[in-house]
Structure formats: structure tokens, C-alpha cells
């Protein structure tokens, strides 16, 4: 029925809504000075909280302690248990995505929380003071983890229950339309992220792919196809190696460098006549191999 199918997801979303604000408070207590560092730290904490409490706890049915005890007693059965649990909870995650999409994006457009907060301040401690608009910057620590969680659910269920994917595509299309409007017309830009969230999003995608591969191992095991299960293990190894390669190849690009340090580096490059060489290296780093000019060995001819 509608109550038993929709109400659990609505209650879960209601409780989860306050988690990002609690995490940003913890990030402030951690001693981060810059606002971007607070948002990044809170974003990471919120994502793993959602993965643990929304994804894994929703998969565990029955007695939680018994499930955990059996998993620790027989660790080799974890992929099979994960595959079985994922298969049985497909309907719940469909309703979760629908609830998060329809109700969440509606609340994002209406902004009732900020409106109530501004009204409360106007009639209490800010009464009589000059009124300021309640417009804030884009809350990355709240938006990015929820989108990453839905992406994780979609990647895991792409193999187990592909019927969930159309709902996920609708969720992303609706979210794209909503946040284009919010970014352009509602939120103000208080600082530039300079792409600092990309390493985190890349890490979340890798986590989702590994979970999907573990689920595939368990799914093939449930279907009594051990050869197919063993064939997934090299995929996990390749995924982990690819993640390490990306860390070595691209992660240093996201290290923060002050403007003064960048200017000093440019001055040193000009002094050593390495400016053009470094510019070419930067261009090559962001140029896919398929778009690079072919080296036909004509230089010596």
C-alpha cells in the first residue's frame, strides 16, 4: 500500500535531512579555518554516514546483531548476503529515490526551512535590526552526498535490478533542472570551489563500482556460477589499480597553491626558460590520447 511503501522512505528522508547540518557543526568544531575546508570535510562525513545508515542498514533485515554476527563468523559469505539483501530491497530504494526526488527537489525550490529560519530571526534576536535577505550559498555538503548516494544505488542496482535505472535517470534530470535554476537565480556565490570536489566524487564513484562488483560476486554465487564469480575478481583489482593511477596522475593537480606561490613559480619558469615547456605539459595532461597528434617519426627525416 501507499502507507507501507512510501511512509518509511519519507520518515527516513525527514531524519536524514538534519544530518548535513550536524556534520557541518562537527566540521567547525574540528578547527577548519576556511569555509571550503569545512564544506569538504562535512561532505565526506555525510556521504559515509548515508552509505552506512541508508544503504547498508536498509539492506539488513531481521535481527541486526544476528546478521552482523553471522557475517563476522563467515566472512566468505558476505558477498552472497549482500547480493541477497540488495535483491530484496529494490522496491525500497525505488521509493527512496522517488521520495528524495519529488519531495526533496520540491523543498529545494520552495526553501521552507530558510524562510522559517529568517522569519524566526526577524521576530526574535534580530528584531528591530536591518533585515538581510536569507539567501545563502550553495550547500555543497548537503547536495553532493545525496546525489552521490543515489549514484551509488544506481551503479549497484544496474546489475541486480535494472528497472530502478529509469527512476534514477528521472531523478538526475529533475535535479539538473532544479539546481540550474537554484544556482543561477537563488544561491549566491561566496567562494569558488576550483574543482576541489572532483577528487571526492571520483572516490565515491570508485566505492560504488567496488560495491557493485562485490554484489556481482555474490549474485553469481547465488546462481551457482563460480567461474563467473572468480572472473569478477580481476575487475576489482583493475578498478583499484585505476584508482591509484588517477591519484598519482591527477590528484596533485588539485593541491591548493596560493596566488603568491603561483606567481613565484611563474617567475622561476621565465627565468629558467621553462614556461613554454610547462604550458605544453599542462596541455598534454588534459588532452586525451585519442586527440593528441600522431607521432609518425618524421622528425628525423
Compute the separation of the termini in Å: 77 Å
Helices and strands: which structural class?
Answer: mainly alpha
Helix content: over 70%
Which sheet architecture does the biggest sheet show? none
Number of helices: 13
Radius of gyration: 24 Å
What's the total number of strands? 0
Domain module count: 1
The overall pLDDT, averaged over residues, is 75
- Which segments are poorly predicted (pLDDT under 50) over 5 or more consecutive residues? 62-66
Overall 3D geometry?
Answer: flat
Percent strand? under 5%
What would you say this structure looks like, in words?
This is Putative membrane protein C2G11.09. Keywords: Membrane, Transmembrane, Transmembrane helix. The chain crosses the membrane at residues 14-33, 45-65, 93-117, 138-157, 163-180, 201-222, 228-246. Residues 1-220 form the CSC1/OSCA1-like 7TM region domain. By secondary structure, this protein is mainly alpha-helical. It has one domain. The chain is 73% helix and 0% strand. The protein has 13 helices and no strands. The protein has helices spanning 2-16, 19-29, 35-59, 64-73, 78-88, 90-110, 112-122, 140-160, 165-185, 198-222, 226-249, 259-271, 275-285. Helix 8 (140-160) runs parallel beside helix 10. It is flat, with a radius of gyration of 24 Å.
